[in-house]
Structures are given as structure tokens and as C-alpha cells.
Write a structure and sequence with these properties.
By secondary structure, the chain is an alpha+beta fold. The chain has one domain. About 45% of the residues lie in helices and about 20% in strands. The chain is built from four helices and five strands; from the N terminus they run H-E-E-E-H-E-E-H-H. The strands form two sheets. It has a three-stranded antiparallel sheet. It has a two-stranded antiparallel ribbon with strand order 4-5. Strand 2 and strand 3 form a beta hairpin. The termini are far apart.
Length: about 130
């Protein structure tokens, strides 16, 4: 009976660590990309804050965002749960400007829990071509 107790305690400890990891992933490690009027804001607990004055993202703005910063959007559907913020900026710039060349800078974020396979250079090109 004691072994059963230790197994249950071990499983609870692992579940607790997993929940703590998910919360850290969402609130500490993840950043946000937001656009309000003529402001583009990138901010996160660990990544700091960057603010740009522009109505739409440009290549120059996107290049200033660290390639390591990513955003978790677990409420998004299917394959749009995680993305690099810089890649998302290039994605938005490509769509806004109908410039397929900017799609080359879109890189898929791979993660063992979240699917970000929607944000690739190829799918960016497809979306831009839909707008042409």
C-alpha cells in the first residue's frame, strides 16, 4: 500500500511541475505582438518592451525584433498556437504590403507542446498570393 502512495505522490508532483512549466511558458517566457493604430508593441516579462511608430510593420521594424522572442497563443486554433514574434511581424508586413519577398524571413517555431506549423515561409507566400 505504501508503494501506491508514493506513486500517487510522484504523479502529483510531476503534474504540478508540468502546470508550473505551462504557466511560466505562457506568462514569463512568451512575448506579445500587438498593433494599436500607429503603434506596434512587442512586450514580455523577460524580453522587455519595444515600441515602434507605424501603422503597418515594415522590414526595418521586423529586423529590430529579436529572432528568439516567441509568442504562445494557446487559445488560437490548430496550428497557430506558437510563433516567433519576428516571423509574425514579417508575416504581417508581407500581407499588408502584398510583398512575397518578405516571406523568406518567416521561420516556423517548433515546440513539443504547441503547434506553430501555420507560420512558415511557404504558407506566408500562399496567403500573399491569395491577396493578389
Amino acid at each position: 500500500m505504501k508503494i501506491f502512495k508514493y506513486i500517487i505522490l510522484g504523479v502529483l508532483a510531476l503534474a504540478t511541475l508540468f502546470v508550473v512549466y505551462l504557466l511560466l511558458e505562457l506568462f514569463a517566457f512568451s512575448s506579445q505582438y500587438e498593433s494599436y493604430g500607429n503603434k506596434i508593441i512587442v512586450h514580455g516579462l523577460l524580453s522587455g518592451r519595444q515600441e515602434f511608430t507605424a501603422y503597418t510593420p515594415t522590414k526595418e521594424i521586423c529586423e529590430q525584433i529579436s529572432p528568439d522572442i516567441y509568442q504562445v497563443a494557446f487559445m488560437n486554433g490548430g496550428n497557430q498556437k506558437i510563433m516567433y514574434v519576428r516571423s509574425y511581424c514579417f508575416w504581417q508586413a508581407a500581407l499588408e504590403n502584398k510583398d512575397e519577398a518578405l516571406c523568406q524571413y518567416v521561420v516556423e517555431k517548433k515546440h513539443f507542446l504547441y503547434n506553430g506549423s501555420y507560420f512558415t515561409a511557404e504558407s506566408c507566400r500562399q496567403e500573399v498570393n491569395k491577396l493578389k
